[in-house]
What we know:
Blueprint: H1 3-23, H2 30-37, H3 41-47, H4 51-69, H5 80-96, H6 103-109, H7 116-140, H8 145-169, H9 173-183
Helix pairs in contact: 1-2, 1-4, 1-6, 2-3, 4-7, 5-7, 5-8, 5-9, 7-8, 8-9
Amino acid sequence: MTIDKVDTKNKIQDVAERLIVQGGYGAFSFRDIAEEVGIKSASVHYHYPTKGDLAAAVMVRYTEVFSRRLPDPNDETLNPNTMLNGFIDGFKAKIVDHHNMSLCTMLTADKHRLPEAVSTALADFYQVKLEWLTQVFMRFEPSLEDQAKIQSIQFLAALHGASVLVQATDNAEFFEKAMSCWRKAHI
């Protein structure tokens, strides 16, 4: 694929991602994306035949980028509590501080209308997060894998719930209050 095609695909995905974050799966059309990228709608369809193909590609790319940024949870030189705080801080910086909902939260809200490929890519993203968090929590108690899995679920629910609460109330302090119990080494 030529650089121009790769660049066009990236621009299309960038715009689609932003529009999904701003309004959900139903909030954009290929025409909207084409206009913003400066191409014809048919060109968007050339790269992504359906809206589902585009949204799935956005989620796959998002997961790949996210995965590359995660530190190795088994790296003994890294403190597990520091990794959890980094995860919280990264989420806060990307989502809460920008007064956004996360891409995965917005797609989850539209789960009932998502094509299967998008739902699968969304589930894969959550699985990456849960697996990484489980490995981090296992650093506190290596013999308690089932407990680490439960803590991962609770942590992720608290993180996303806190961001929803901030958006609903317009009170950014709620994020830190909701996450405070996860910020200290208590496990």
